[in-house]
Write a structure and sequence with these properties.
The structure holds two protein chains of two kinds. By secondary structure, chain A is mainly alpha-helical. Chain A contains twelve helices and two strands, in the order αααββααααααααα. In chain A, strands 1-2 form a two-stranded antiparallel sheet. By secondary structure, chain B is mainly alpha-helical. Chain B is globular and about 70 Å long. The two termini of chain B are 33 Å apart. The chains are: A mainly alpha, B mainly alpha.
Chain lengths: 302, 281
């Protein structure tokens, strides 16, 4: 008798997770219905975000989410990969443990702390040193035009990269550690250098696991809110320049929620949330299915 | 395979080694830079009054964020009380009963997705359920949002930790005639205890620095928390509001609050790591 109750209680608690997920889909759809009906597909193509005229389009927010996430991935993916290489192959054990612990602490730092640091320390640094240098070297490209304000898409992307770096490093380190020592040793036995073994043996062996990890990192990058909100500039205009102020889906929601007094405005913000929700689910579902297939092929271990 | 000179191969190897050392240094440098800035700027704002007094209007000297420290503590504790038991039981279901059944696979997948769902979305969800119908932001809505964020983290770590417990232990307890629930609670739980506490601590560390979900649920308040049914002051939303304000003394307060948050989170993270050292593989 006690066992039957116990089984049901635990089952009910597990069902809570299903209820929450289902509730999230329903609630976000129902509460963005006003905006869904009013703007239809035009919501995704319109750049106009004008609370006074009650016109709302998500194009600039979606663009900003995409671009900041791309900048973050381009920087963090290779950096995380070679940091993991350092931890596994190069560092003496004690140093490896210390650096590893530091990377894990970096992952524990809350997003709002990155925001504070980004806005008051890193953005001025970008404005005074990095952005003028970039403009000096590459100023003829449309990517780096406009006044160096410090805040903007590039700064947001770099801070995002710093935030997902620990995640990519941790997973890459696990994947590197998974490669059987015998396989690596036979590489070294043939006279290969560390880099050759890494490129031809370790990476070959683990590349698909690392790609899966990359997708999970991407999922985090597109949903990150506070750090971006502080430094992206909150501007509803798509600009070719990475130095210009922009916005992302999450930053628009965080910045404007308090002002949204009209039902349509609120509904448009919740629709933004729905878009973000669908995006992260899609990215994650791909990552998990990919990793699961991989796990079956390799017989566990990931 | 293309043949290359030994010198070329060695040089490339050296270059990659240098680059990877540099990458590790960048990560270390980033962490160091953030910690040093928070520490130096935060210390300047911290004093006894910071923890015991109410905030003052901009320009007025003195005052503190005692109400926000208290509010954050209340909501985090409430979220723990809500999220951890449900997460533990759901984890038990997955590891002891569900195993490879369809239901368990679905729960596992959904909790992975929930874990990766941006916290701002969870905030909006709780807003539509608990705030919109009442027309008022509230401390318990904030606690529920934080609990929803904790739930999948606790569930997954519980399942992982329980699956590490050898089956022989379960079988010997069952052979003694103990019912399943006593086996789980008395034997399996006890041998996985350190891991479970670690999981709970990490979940608490994760939510205590959350801002976005509270923006939609608890909001903020300049008064002492009096009722869970009203907007509840908290450190993270205060940091957001103060940092965005044009007042120098409010910005200084925001740095102080940042230091308090990061100290709390890092102490939890380090403590849980000391408590439970994963076996090196």
């Amino acid at each position: 008798m006690g066992d039957v109750i116990f089984r049901w209680v635990t089952g009910l608690c597990a069902a809570v997770i299903i209820v929450i997920m289902a509730g999230m889909v329903i609630q976000l759809t129902v509460n963005s219905w006003l905006s869904l009906r009013q703007f239809g597909l035009g919501f995704f193509t319109s750049q106009s975000w004008n609370p006074v005229r009650q016109e709302f389009g998500a194009a600039s927010s979606m663009y900003g989410t995409l671009i900041s996430a791309v900048i973050a991935m381009v920087l963090a993916f290779p950096l995380g990969l070679i940091t993991a290489l350092f931890l596994v192959e190069l560092a003496p054990p004690l140093l490896g443990r210390i650096v590893g612990a530091a990377v894990e602490l970096l992952a524990a730092v809350p997003s709002i702390i990155y925001g504070m640091w980004g806005m008051f320390v890193f953005a001025p640094f970008m404005a005074n040193h990095v952005q003028p240098a970039l403009q000096g070297a590459l100023g003829s490209l449309p990517l780096f035009t406009g006044p160096p304000m410090g805040i903007g898409m590039l700064t947001a992307g770099i801070i995002l990269a710093l935030m997902i770096l620990p995640f990519i490093t941790a997973v890459s380190r696990d994947v590197f550690g998974m490669v059987p020592a015998v396989v690596k040793e036979s590489g070294y036995g043939m006279g290969a250098t560390t880099w050759e073994v890494t490129r031809k043996v370790t990476l070959r062996y683990g590349i698909r696991g690392i790609i899966g990890a990359g997708f999970l990192g991407l999922g985090r990058a597109i949903g990150e809110t506070m750090a971006i909100t502080f430094v992206i500039g909150n501007n509803h205009q798509i600009s070719a320049s990475l130095l210009a102020a922009g916005n992302s889906i999450a930053s628009t929601m965080a910045n404007e929620f308090a002002e949204a007094s009209e039902p349509l405005y609120l509904s448009a913000l919740i629709e933004l949330g729905l878009v973000l929700f669908v995006l992260t689910i899609a990215v994650q579902a791909i990552a998990h299915l990919w990793l699961q297939r991989l796990k079956k092929q390799m017989g566990g271990g990931l | 395979m293309r043949s290359r000179s030994l010198f070329g191969r060695r040089a490339l190897d050296l270059a990659v080694k240098a680059a990877s050392t540099l990458a590790a240094l960048i990560a270390l440098f980033g962490l160091g830079w953030i910690l040093v800035e928070i520490l130096t700027r935060g210390m300047a704002a911290l004093n006894w009054a910071f923890f015991t007094e109410l905030p003052t209007p901009p320009g007025m000297p003195g005052g503190g964020l005692g109400n926000a420290v208290l509010g954050t503590a209340i909501m985090t504790m409430l979220a723990t009380v809500l999220g951890v038991p449900i997460g533990l039981l759901a984890g038990i279901f997955l590891s002891e009963f569900g195993k490879d059944s369809k239901a368990a696979t679905a729960v596992r997948f959904l909790s992975n997705v929930l874990m990766g769902t941006p916290s701002i979305i969870i905030g909006v969800f709780v807003y539509t359920v608990l705030v919109l119908p009442r027309g008022m932001f509230s401390g318990y809505a904030g606690a529920v949002a934080l609990a929803v964020i904790m739930l999948p983290v606790v569930t997954r770590t519980t399942e992982d930790m329980l699956s590490l417990v050898p089956n022989a232990l379960r079988e010997s307890a069952l052979a003694l005639g103990a019912p399943r629930w006593r086996v789980t609670m008395g034997v399996v739980f006890r041998s996985a205890r350190d891991g479970l506490i670690t999981g709970a601590l990490l979940a608490i560390a994760r939510v205590s620095g959350e801002t976005a979900p509270l923006l939609f649920t608890a909001l903020n308040s300049p008064y002492w928390p009096e009722s869970l049914g009203r907007p509840m002051p908290n450190l993270t939303v205060t940091i957001f509001n103060y940092a965005m304000s044009p007042f120098a003394d409010w910005k200084a307060m925001a740095w102080g609050a940042s230091l308090v948050i990061i100290a709390g989170v890092l102490v939890l993270a380090v403590f849980s790591r000391l408590l439970f050292k994963p076996k090196q593989t």
